[in-house]
Amino acid sequence: MKIGIPKDGRFGDFGGKYIPETLAPAIEELERNYLKIRNDKNFKKELGRLLIDYAGRPTPIYFARNLTKTVGGAKIYLKREDLLHGGAHKINNTLGQALLAKRMGKKRIIAETGAGQHGVATAMACASLGLKAEIYMGYVDTVRQKQNVFRMELLGAKVHAVKSGSKTLKDAINEAMRDWITNVDSTYYLLGSAVGPHPYPLMVRDFQAVIGVEIKKQMKKIPNAVIACVGGGSNAIGTFYPLIDTNAKIIGIEAGGKGVKTKLHSAPLTAGKKGVLHGMMTYLMQDKDGQISQTHSISAGLDYPGVGPEHAYLKDENRVEYKAVTDDEVIDAFLILTRTEGIIPALESAHAIAHAIKISKKMKKTESIVVTLSGRGDKDIDIVKEYLSKNVKNKRKI
Amino acid sequence: MSKIKEKFKQLKSKKESALISYIMAGYPSEKATLSAVRGLIQGGTDIIELGFPFSDPIADGPTIQMASTESLNSGTKINNFFSIVKKIRKESDIPLVLMTYTNILYNQTYEKFILRAKQAGIDGLILPDMAIEESKEYVKAAKKVGMDTIFLVSPNTEKDRLKQIIKSTSGFLYMVAVFGTTGVQTKIHKYTIDALKNTKNAAKGKIPVGVGFGISTDKDVQKYVSSGADAVIVGSANIKIIENTPAGKIQTRIATFTKKLKNKTR
Fold it and tell me: Does residue A184 sit at the B interface (CB-CB below 8 Å)?
């Protein structure tokens, strides 16, 4: 079931490379170069060094004693990706790809970003490696994550606010792809999630797999359950991949928004249909004609109508269980973790926390759950504040 | 013989290149689309390429993106599209090509969608995000009903790949003139003319080569035709005319513009 290098870029039915012809040589060049450095000792050494000295790896596994006690049930451990440089797991991938881009002789880097974390991590990696970065971000996201826009600019990146379509992450990807088509020779597209045409889903998973590899080392025994949030699914695939061959129960949490029965969510694995978008075949939120639906999530980073093809595959293989939690449940989890542990999680990561709280109650005290805390929540405090001012039910809990 | 193939054969005997005109179905309304089609036919275009809007048109520049969004906002569904096609078929026999994105077909299954398109009167398909590697099932479904599969090639497409694409292509081969999206070119690059020559050589006269993306004036048309293009494809320029013309005058203005372009293919 575990797929190393996917044949023809396919994870079962999913993945592939559905791309405009102009990008074909660039994708081919990327694939060739990536497969070459994938096992290159010098590359691994250089990246390993950067991950330790620059990004702050390894990240700790933290036993959330107070949260566990409050919830009552299985022991909850947090994989602290929020402690990385930049405040999220994104830097694992941007350092890897920026280093690759540099080796390929590309000087101009473009990237998309949703919440801004990937944009910030790209800007950081580029600043440190001497590359020029331009970031596409949906206009809606530039408003709701304005702090990250300024962070990127401070780091020397140029931010383009995308005003087409739904003005969120999917449109930022569209615009980045259009830029790449136009500047295909000089430009490296540094995709931030485990999505897009092959070899991106493979490459991003490989660079993020350090999360799961460390979890395996740090836990005395394989945890009973592992949980991560899934938008495109990079922190989740990085967490899951090294654990696929174990007997851990693996759960991915999608953004249920206002509920998966409403149209206001971002849960293609829970409520989507197979289709083709952004160069890949995967599960998508779409209407009867195949038009991509508008999505909703309280977290900009999960507000995406598609999902990485390897997740689609793991769902169909029944190896990973995919569930959705609602915005309300996310805010509750955000508040509980903040209060009990003094850790402010990103709203994305709070999705995984919310599900851990749900299932730990039903598990034995001797059992363990590892939750990947993919990022810290400083970027989200304005959103939470506004939400609380409108939702009295949650507010009573503070 | 497919309608498209037949058209190229006729043109060849007259030593003409084809003018292929693109418009977006349902932009800004079904009525406007039908007026524009009448204008194109009146102006003497050889093949009409009808766009069906997709929510995420990654190969398109601002003009066609805008037309896609407007068309979707005005309520264009697949059913409306096929009803437009059927209406055109009542008035004309002109070869009709559908341009849209892969997900629109995949959503209904290639086989069902292509059959339905064929029955409505579509002669060929263009999917800018359908890479040759992923096209087996699509080409098979198209062949089954005699639908032409028009693939795109780019100035940076390598020789072996070009050969492979030509093998799966029927109707004509669509050469993208520029590195970029639709509708944004300002001048004709030398690399495009070189690529056109290479592509023509690879096609060996077995399949006509059309050039598109960023072609908007009669001078552009003349330049590509004199450089050996079997067809030139004009899209965004038509959309701009439709955008800036009151509904009642669309037919005449499109006809005048098309006539001017068509003259340069002779």
Answer: yes
Q: Which residues of A touch B103 (CB under 8 A)?
A: 275-277, 284, 286, 290, 292
A309 in contact with B at a CB cutoff of 8 Å? no
Q: Do residue A273 and residue B61 have CB atoms under 8 angstroms apart? A: no
Binning pLDDT at 50, 70 and 90, where does residue A166 land? confident
The arrangement of strands across the sheet holding B152-153 comes to B148-150, B124-126, B96-99, B47-51, B18-24, B231-234, B209-212, B173-176, B152-153
Using one digit for the tens of pLDDT, what is the confidence trace for B161-215?
Answer: 999 999 999 999 999 999 999 987 778 999 999 999 999 999 999 999 999 999 9
pLDDT exceeds 70 at position A85:
yes
Distance CA B17, CA B19 (A): 7
Instruction: Read off the tokens for B151.
Output: 């693939």
The pTM for the full model equals: 0.97
Joined together, the tokens standing for residue A86 give 């930049």
Nearest CA in chain A to B78: A289
Reported ipTM exceeds the 0.95 cut? yes
Catalytic residue at B60? yes
- Cis bond upstream, residue B57 (ω within 30): no
B49 assigned to active site:
yes
Question: Which among B30, B60, B148, B220 is annotated as catalytic?
Answer: B60
**What is the chain A residue with the closest CA to B165?**
A21
Dihedral angle of Cα B232, B238, B239, B242, to the nearest 10 degrees: -170
Q: Which residue has the tokens 């629109």?
A: B104
